Amino acid sequence: MLRMFVVLVAFCLGVAFATNSQSGVCVIKLVKGKLVSVGDCQKNDGSEIARLMKRDLKMKQKGRCDILYKSKCFHAIVYPTHNANFEDAQAACKKHKWKLGNVYDVMNYLLLQDFFVTMIPADQSLINVWTGMTYTNGNLRLTSGKEATFPEQLWKPYSNTQWTNVVFAVRKVRKKNTRDIFNIAPDWEYNGVLCED
């Protein structure tokens, strides 16, 4: 009964959760109407899902969050064309009293990818999404100034050190050896924006 209730609530809210267990990462998300656990998930009775849903429901009730991750509320903006430079992306977030968002770690990146891929316009194969992160002095940094680290498969900076803004690519079909998170000049125009409360 609890599992059916959890599935119904998750379906209605469009929820995906990520947790850390002692043995690794556990991702719980809704796939084709069913809750699916991927990774090192210790409990299979629905109690962990229910706990996460209660926690994140409180966050979601405060305001519309497209993605909740570690109590951080993310919002996705996607335009039909590549018409938003960095300044436009900042303004889009500010309009809603948000700020440009961060990608905190690999799990956060994967959840963002899963959400943004559903927003890629039908006539496009990928979108690039502005973040508030920066690339300075050879380091990838969050908006707080704290250094962020990602594996080489994801973070591939261009050698132009004057390109200090950071975007991430979202593809309908993932390809190997591509730049997934990278630095770019602020005047380039893309169609995705990641905002955060």
List the main descriptive attributes of the protein structure presented here.
Mannose-Binding Protein A, Chain A; 197 residues; eight-stranded mixed sheet; alpha+beta; three-stranded antiparallel sheet
Give structural notes.
The chain has 197 residues and is of the alpha+beta class. The protein has two domains: 2-62, no CATH class; 74-196, Mannose-Binding Protein A, subunit A (Mannose-Binding Protein A, Chain A), CATH 3.10.100.10. The protein contains four helices and eleven strands, in the order αβββαββαβαβββββ. Strands 4, 5, 6, 7, 8, 9, 10 and 11 form an eight-stranded mixed sheet that branches. It has a three-stranded antiparallel sheet with strand order 1-2-3, with helices on both faces. Strand 2 (24-31) and strand 3 form a beta hairpin. Helix 1 (2-13) packs parallel to helix 2 (47-62). The longest helix is centred in the first third of the chain and has 16 residues, at 47-62. The two termini are 34 Å apart.
Mind sketching the topology for me?
Layout: H1 2-13, E1 16-21, E2 24-31, E3 34-39, H2 47-62, E4 67-69, E5 72-78, H3 86-95, E6 99-100, H4 106-117, E7 126-136, E8 139-141, E9 165-171, E10 181-184, E11 192-196
Parallel strand pairs: 7-11
Antiparallel strand pairs: 1-2, 2-3, 4-5, 5-11, 6-11, 7-8, 7-9, 9-10
Helix pairs in contact: 1-2
